[in-house]
Amino acid sequence: MLYPQRLGQFTREHADTVAALLCGLLLLFGWFALHLGWLGLAFLLLPAAYIIGGYESAREGLTTLFKEKELDVDLLMIVAAIGAASLGLWRREYHLIIDGAILILIFAISGALEGYAMARTERSIRSLMSLTPDTARVLLQGREEEIPIAQLKVGDEIVVKPGELIPTDGIILSGYSTLNQAAITGESLPVEKTVGAEVFAGTLNGYGALQIKVHKPAQSSLIQRVIRLVEQAKTEAPPSQEFIDRFEKGYAKVIVVAGILLATLPPFLWGWDWETTIYRALTFLVVASPCALMAAIMPTLLSGIANGARQGILFKNGAQLEKIGKVRAIAFDKTGTLTTGQVQVFQVFSTSKYTQQDVLKAAAIVESYSEHSIGKAIVQAAGETVRVFSARRSAFAKRSVGAASRREGKAVPVESKLLNPKGDLDLVDAIQVQAIPGQGIVGIAQEQQIIVGNAVFVQQYVTNLPEELRKKAQSWEQQGKTVVWVAQKGKRAGAQGGRGAEVMGVIALADEVRAEAAATITRLKKLGVEQIVMLTGDNQETAHSVAKTVGIDRVYAQLLPEDKLNIIRRLQQQYQTVAMVGDGINDAPALAQASVGIAMGVSGSDVALETADIVLMADRLEKTAVAMHLGRRSQLIVKQNIVVALSFIMLLLVSNFLGNINLPIGVIGHEGSTVLVTLSGLRLLK
């Protein structure tokens, strides 16, 4: 029983190949029978070859004709083959029946080869589907229980053992391991992960057991979004393919009309005999069909999408692979894109009325409500400063308490009011917190309004900026640091008149430039990008410092989200096709406006990821150049394919008109060019 099952499975999986083989065998035996004069056997075998080899093409052609009212290339091939057979029976020149059968055989072989070629791309894309397990091991009341992935809820705690695939995105609660993220992000080396780190579905756990908390629905995981987008990319035809599809529909009608004219006019115009006329008309139907032209684009683009996915570059559809190959100008966001986005507090400078700790805590109170990297850095620095301060006070207190206890016989406890019992930063709640993208954030805490932001923003609330702080801020900015001003308004501020708030101090933050940024910019220039610019909401000095480091000459600083949008529009007027690379919410409008929006996949906000056309899964900036190289290479291959397809069609048409080819040679030339073009497109898989 096992062998019939395997045979049936093989037949289903390779139906085109089996049909082509049977067609070839029947054709061979039919030709042999015809050669021996066994006409009865030949007329039994050859029609069977026609039916088995041409059934699928005839079915598809007739379906297109009756349902869509359009002529199909498959139908033209069948008409040509049946016409050749009919001509052979009419003239009793049975070799024409063989010619028609050869046409069907070569068409069937071509279809099987194209199917295998496209299946290779399909397998490369569908390999993503096998990256997630079907079940997850969930902790329920201290016991492990396996449940389907679809039943996971936000807040569930799952256990992943060494060597297992991560079932869904989550945050590590306990454990330490290395994860192979190559299938998702394209990173070749395993990445170390420990408590607090985010893990992605489809990545392979290393040697350590992990306890993970689900922080988003399973269907919203990174790998599921990738799968949905890749599936969408397969079904959405890019503009060039849509043009070819429209062209093919009109072209097929032209072929039929021209074929009818060629089958009727030559005997009257040039004195051809009817046999030659009909034979040339049938050959014309074959060689003029645009099969190779139809295969010139989609195999190439699907191969490029599959190649990009293997390298951690997600093209949302084939149109974006086309467009990035035409990019003439590209704009980069600074923070989180050209830099790592891991901003750290470099130095704090306060006025005489406040301490550095006061400045950090005031800023941290409102920045704790912000998702911006600068806000997170300030909150982190405030916590570290308070813990160090508390540790020093505790050590001093122990010495003081020891002396006091010796004198008075009792201990006096000393605590930091900023730390909670766990030793973490204890911030008061703020109300009416409002973040203004690209400028700053304000909020009210303990009846005092706290203002944190750049100098222009803070000046809206204060009478003046202290000269000493101005000089310090200017010095930091010249060094490429980002400067944040902190002010407050309330009873303690004591400001009278004017805008009512006073400056507490300034905070300098530094963001490390990505190690690969300069090399990426250099490679983009070598690829022929005419203009590379940097867009940032940061100050001029910091922006120019980073730009100089990475090799960008044109800088736009102190921008609001709408400013970035307007600059992209101006670039498009000058360079037409413009790419934008960003990661934040404030980049979303510019990403949407750009001809090609490219988002950083790990550090990027959900808004940026949804808006962008291309996602760099591992935040590896150098993949921008790889994506552009793929796009330009795909454009080159598509152009080569179109030239090859049109050249073959023209050559075969001229040869047919001059009488230098017969029907089988025409079929070989036509189908050979189609297979050649398809295989050419698959070069992008490497």
Keywords, separated by commas or semicolons:
16% strand; 6-stranded antiparallel sheet; elongated; 7-stranded mixed sheet; 22 strands; 686 residues; alpha+beta; 54% helix
Quick structural gist:
The protein is an alpha+beta fold.
Structure in words:
The chain has 686 residues and is of the alpha+beta class. The chain has 25 helices and 22 strands. Helix 22 links the parallel strand 20 and strand 21. Helix 3 packs across helix 5 and helix 4 (73-91) packs antiparallel against helix 5 (95-126). It starts with a helix and ends in a 5-residue tail after the last helix. The relative contact order is 0.10.
SS-based structural class?
alpha+beta
Which regions contain 5 or more consecutive residues with pLDDT less than 50? 387-424, 492-498
Tell me the strand percentage band: 15-25%
Provide a count of the helices: 25
Beta strand count: 22
Radius of gyration, whole Å: 35 Å
Give a short account of the largest sheet: 7 strands, mixed
How far the N terminus sits from the C terminus, by CA atoms, comes to 41 Å
**Whole-number mean pLDDT:** 77
Silhouette:
elongated
**Largest sheet, spatial ordering of strands:** 10-22-21-20-11-18-19
